[in-house]
Design brief:
205 residues, mainly alpha, 5% strand
Length: 205
């Protein structure tokens, strides 16, 4: 009488729809309710408040309950409008502007007190040994100074890529609040600080 089907808007949920047998059972269900309300209702009346005419206005002074069978697919889901949205201006842009100012000030002050480990001007007639790789390979090059090439070039990067691919399957929390996504929040600082740590370790050595 009832069939289960996946919700097209949310596949993780299920919808229950009447089959043809369930729809044709409506007259039987209606007569059973009318019969029960007529002969077995409490002194206070029917267990469910009737809709339609006022109590006692039906034939023979009885109260009748009105039912409606709704066709499949005609029920509309009412979705609440999110109340946590803010306007781009001034809320979002002001926050981003303040963040940009703070980062710029921090970078300026840091560069005043800490000198960058720069080398002398490049000489195209003399290649340094070892030659420094581009910045996006610099971390891997520093690993080569500490580990076997197979470990530094294949094993460690492979483990890192595998963990990044598994991150969506490990953290399945749909919440957008940072306090509920501790794994996802901690993953970004780890991926950012790991290359810097490798470069500093190689520079110290």
């Amino acid at each position: 009488m009832i069939r289960q089907q996946a919700d097209p808007e949310a596949p993780s949920r299920s919808q229950y729809r009447l089959t043809r047998k369930g729809v044709e059972y409506y007259p039987v269900l209606l007569m059973l309710m009318i019969w029960g309300d007529r002969y077995y209702a409490s002194p206070e009346g029917a267990p469910v408040a009737p809709s339609g005419p006022a109590p006692g206005s039906g034939p023979d002074g009885n109260t009748h309950r009105l039912l409606t069978v709704v066709k499949s697919g005609s029920i509309q889901d009412t979705k609440a409008t999110p109340g946590d949205k803010v306007h781009v201006w001034p809320h979002l842009l002001v926050a981003e502007f303040l963040a940009a100012i703070i980062i710029t000030l921090f970078t300026t002050v840091f560069s005043i007190f800490v000198n960058a480990p720069l080398l002398e001007l490049a000489d195209f007639n003399k290649t340094p040994n070892p030659s420094k790789a581009p910045w996006y390979f610099l971390g891997l090059q520093e690993l080569l100074t500490m580990f076997h090439p197979m470990v530094a070039g294949v094993t460690i990067p492979g483990i890192g890529l595998f963990l990044l691919m598994m991150a969506p399957y490990i953290d399945k929390n749909p919440s957008k609040k940072p306090e509920d996504r501790k794994f996802a929040v901690s993953l970004m600082p780890m991926t950012r600080t790991a290359p810097a740590a490798r470069i500093l370790a190689g520079h110290r050595s």
